[in-house]
Amino acid sequence: MKRAFFFSLLFLTGLVCAQTTDSQYLYGIHWYGKTDSISIGQRTDVEDMTGDRGIWVLEITHVDASQAQPWDLPFYYVGHSQKVTQGKGHSLIFRVQPYWSRNVPHSSDPYTLTTYANDCKSAASTLKDYCHIWQIGNEVNLSSENNRWGGSLYNIEWQPTPAQYAETYIACRDKIHEVTPNTTPGTQIVLMQPVSPGSAAGVRFMDGNEYLWRQIDAVSDKGKIDGFALHSYAEPGGSNYGVDGFWDAIREQLMIIDQSGLGDRPIFITEFNKHMPSQTEAEIGAKFCHRAFDEMNAWNAGSGGEVPGLSNHNVIAACWFVYPKDFEWDEYALQYWKNKTSAFDEEHDPWKSFNYACGQNYQKGASGGGPTVPNDTLWWQDSFNGSTLDQTPPLPDWKAETTGSGSVVMSETGSVRLLGNSSLDGGGGIRTAGYVYGNFRIETNITFINADRSNTGDTQANLDIRIREGSKGYSFTFFTSQSQDNPGRVILRRTNDWTQIGSCNTQVSGGINSGDTFNIQITANGSSITFTAYKNGGTSPAVEWSITDDGQKVGWIRIMTWNLNEARVNDFKLGGAQWGGSKVTAWEAF
Q: How many structural domains are present in the chain?
């Protein structure tokens, strides 16, 4: 914060610091607020809101003394930290970075990585009586979060790679671990930075999920990754007051962590909120707030949310961004909206909603508790033999999506129908929204029931199977013989820009016509990806490609049609990259 705690130093002389103990609760806030005018142990509006429960509080300290104001530096947070914690039971998490909009030192910066790491150690030593949990950096996949030295100021945006962030994290983490904290527990936990969740469109130069996967992958010694900070927000206009979209993004990040073999690492959500620029939005925010805590508590107590039959990776705590008013973030601030809505209750007032959630006494999640994802077994499958598409956890759990006036309908004979319904660009699709995959093996069967164009206003008619879907994902695209573009061909394309990848373009013998069936097998393992398709039960592949490509490491799986009358999907199976597959050749009756 620009205003901080300069005068709190006056209270330090002669005071004895009580050892801080981690909060037992799930609840947290981003910034406690100003403490200049209060004494140690004095209650504030925060304690009113929490019902005197000790919760988690995230603060930010900068460590580049040549750029930061005195009240931004660790020494000036000592008195503030004492007032936040002593006699109140709150627990601190400190986000550490050189200065605003700087996370990873550039090689040309006068402020070097070595200096940053040493300054992190100094911060840990200065605040060792109050904090043992540290977040290194913040949302590095945002261009606006990264400035490098321009000759007189840090004013040139740049884009640190995930590997450059990983190097920064390890350097800072190792130096912080040289300090033994005077806390309970007396163990340093240094969290990898939270990515900005979402696609690379607009403000992000890399998908949030992709950056997270790559920053983990870049660390050779995974034992040095202490834990993770995550961010997610209410989905604007989303179902369940935005809770469903918020949790999809969290679950995707947890799946990335667990597919990397780190299901035992502690997880802290250090930012979550609902944008509340008006009373109407604030009242939606109130509904979102306590329901989000309900969702997190249920997740912590449940299983099968990532892999059927396996435990859920717990969330220790979640910090609402922000608590205090008058810090340029009033459109998110719980304190700002207190008693300003149509009713002072949990369904209308965000402050009261947080207060209500605290009254549920939700305990913090376990440290880790997540699954060890097997690489050599079938994870889950869907034979599509019900009357409705499975759209709820546990897996299989699909999101139905359509284009034009297309639709997704169950056949009730062991397949899901993807229909164009004669509309322009009409199609249906199913996607693993809320579930992302990096290294895996797919096997599925596709039947082209009616391979004609849904509407003659478009020249294409195709079905595509997308893997690692993101800004640079992969689309295994089948153009029917009735498509005027690429008739009877299978082409591997880059998602979003739809350019062909390498030489992956095959004319299918006999074309792709109504009644044709394809058994499709895809294996992705690191940069090695194979695509195979067998037509009409044949034993020789109609399509067989092996590529080496680093464009995308993780993303959704989607099967969808475009301007196609009807295709059907059945026998979808997904397993680890070393799972041998079942090589299904039997076909359901249609």
A: 2
